Amino acid sequence: MMRGSVTMLLRTIFLIPVVGLLSGCYLTTQAGYFLGDQIQARPVPRVETDHKTTAETREFIALVHDILEFAVQEIGLDRGRNFTRYIATERSNVAYVVSATKELSFQTYRRRFPFVGEVPYLGFYRRPAADRLGAALIGQGYDVWVRGVGAFSTLGYFSDPLYSYMADYPLHRLANMLIHELAHATLWIPDDVEFNEQYATIIGDEGARAYIRSRHGVESEQYRLLEDTAADSVVYRADMLELRSRLAELYGTNLDEEAKRQAKQQSIRNHQNAFATTYDERFQTEGYRRYPELEVNNAYLSLFDLYTRDLSSFYRLYESLGCDLAAFVDAFRELPSSDLTPGDYLKTLIVR
User: Fold this and answer.
1) pLDDT, tens only, 247-299
2) Going by C-beta distance under 8 Å and a sequence separation of 6 or more, which residues neighbour residue 209?
3) For the chain: N or C, fewer Cβ within 10 A?
4) Are 52 and 7 spatial neighbours (Cβ–Cβ below 8 Å)?
5) Would you put residue 253 in left (φ > 0), alpha (ψ -120 to 50) or beta?
6) Which H or E run includes 188?
C-alpha cells in the first residue's frame, strides 16, 4: 500500500533527493522536467494576492505557513526557501520512483550521485520512463516496485514548491510531509540513506503529532485520526518486516532457485490470506485493507527495511531527551563534521 493508494505507514517514503532525478544518463530529460516545474512555480505571496486564487487555496497556503512556522520555531528545522512557491497542476504525483531488489535475496539496486552519495532508488518525472527502467531491471533478475511520490526534497539546493494536490491531503499527512521535507533539508549525510530516512521519519511522525496536539488538542478528531493511523502503521510495519525476515531465511537455504521461487510465492500468499482474515481484529483504519491485493515482492518489502527497520535507537534518544523534538534535532547538528559514522554518532548520544 503505497502513498497514492491506501498506505499511511510510508507517508514519508515519497521524499527523494532531487539529485536522483538529475544525474546519470537520463540527466537531460529529467532536468528538463525539473526545470519546467521550477519555471512554472509562482511565488506564494503572488498567489495569495491574485484575485483568481480561490478561498480554498488561500486556506491551504495559510495552513502550510502555520505548519512551517511550527517546524522552524518549535522543532528547530531549517526552512530556507522551501515551500515559498506554488504550482497548480492536475497531476497527483510529482514523480515516480523505481526501487529494485534481487528476486531471491535482499540485495538492492543502488546508484551513486553527486552530493547525496549512493541511493537505493531512481526517480522519473514520467511514468513510462520509470516503467521502462523497471522492465530492464526485471530482465536482470530484480523484483521491482514503482511508486508515485507527491514531493521530494532538493536538500536545500533549490526551492521545493507546493503542489495544488497537496491541499487534498489530510492534516496529519500534510504536516508529516512538510516536516519530513524540512528534516532532509536540515540534515543529509551522503552515502547513508537508511540513516537519513529514519532520522526524517521520526521527525516527521513526532513533528506532526506535536503540531496537531498544539493546534487542536489531544481530544480532537484530527489527533485521534493521527493516533489511529500511527498505531496501524506500527502493526503493518511489523507484519512486513516479519515477512521479509521469513523470506530472507528462505533465501539462505540450500533449495534450488525454482524451489525458492515457489516457496517465496506461497509464503507471500499465506501472509496475505492471514492478513485479510485478521484485519478487523488488528487495525483501526481502512489504510491497509488492500494489502492482500498487492503483488508483493522483495522490492516492496525492502522499503520497510530502508525507512523503518530500526527506529528504536532514535526513539531511545528521543525519550532520553524528554521527548523534546527540538533537542533531538539539535543533538545531530555536529554530525556532518564528525569523524564517526551516523550509527556510531547516534550511539554516543544515547549513552551521554
Assistant:
1) 999 999 999 999 999 999 999 999 999 999 999 999 999 999 999 999 999 99
2) 223, 226, 227, 230
3) C
4) no
5) beta
6) none
Residues contacting 341, CB < 8 A, separation 6+? 192
pLDDT tens digits for range 172-220: 999 999 999 899 989 989 888 889 989 999 999 999 999 999 999 999 9
- Residue 218 burial by Cβ neighbours in a 10 Å radius (0-12, 13-18, 19+): exposed
Distance (Å, whole) CA 174 – CA 197: 17
Burial environment of residue 180 by CB neighbours within 10 A (0 to 12, 13 to 18, 19 or more): buried
SS3 117: strand
In one-letter notation, the amino acid at residue 279 is Y
- DSSP for 190-230, written as a single string: TT-HHHHHHHHHHHHHHHHHHHHHHHH-TTSHHHHHHHHHH
Do residues 263 and 250 lie in contact, with contact meaning Cβ atoms separated by under 8 Å? Answer: yes
Q: Which three cell numbers stand for residue 201?
A: 521519519
Q: What is the DSSP string of 223-292?
A: HHHHHHHHHHHHHHHHHHHHHHHHHHHHHTSS--HHHHHHHHHHHHHHHHHHHHHHHHHH-SSSTTTTGG
pTM (predicted TM-score) = 0.83
Helices (H), 140-186: 171-186
Cα separation, 196 vs 193, whole angstroms? 5
